[in-house]
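Render this sequence as a predicted structure.
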Amino acid sequence: MATCALVAAGDFNSEHFTKSDAIGAFDEVYAVDGGYAFLDAIGREPDVVVGDFDSLGYVPQSQRLHRFPMHKDKSDLELAFDQLKLDGFDEVVVYGAIGGRLDHTIANLQMACSFAEDGLIVTFISLDCAIRIVVGPSVYHLPDLKSGTVSVFSAVDCAKGVTEQGLEYPLENADLTNRTTLGVSNELIGKPASIEVSEGTLYVFHPLS
């Protein structure tokens, strides 16, 4: 399993990134446009740089630079996803893509589902939580945490066979649509917790480990 970190220009959880990078969690790190400035500020040279660089304001120096025009049909983050798939990564951890403009956050989450449904393991890291995209049929085992809030939403019209175990409010083989608040604000209770889905795609929000 090869894992890539993408660092975009939104809210950057530098503490989580630095700890993960220090223990070798990432095989490579990609800077996505303005995300380059975040990495530069902490002294981390990215392996790959992608973008049109309208946010950054200049074109950085990099041996593996992928520059695109500002007038295009894909966001810089989507182009970075395209590139990491071409580079053969199995998993991506995305920083700087949650928070800030709500339309960008929604676009990033929706776009990433297509890659997750194609087999890529995708996790977003915000300032206060992780968001894992879970594609059925599969079971996602949450980090071993004593407490915290877990929310589960359908990323498709209807996710089927959704089961939540080890949480305050269990759910058993339910159909979860994207037109309900069912799934919001469940609670960890100090037990091993998991989210299972038989068919469809879920967003699982949980505390950072």
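Summary. Residues 3-133 form a domain with the Rossmann fold fold (CATH 3.40.50.10240). The two ends are 20 Å apart (CA to CA).
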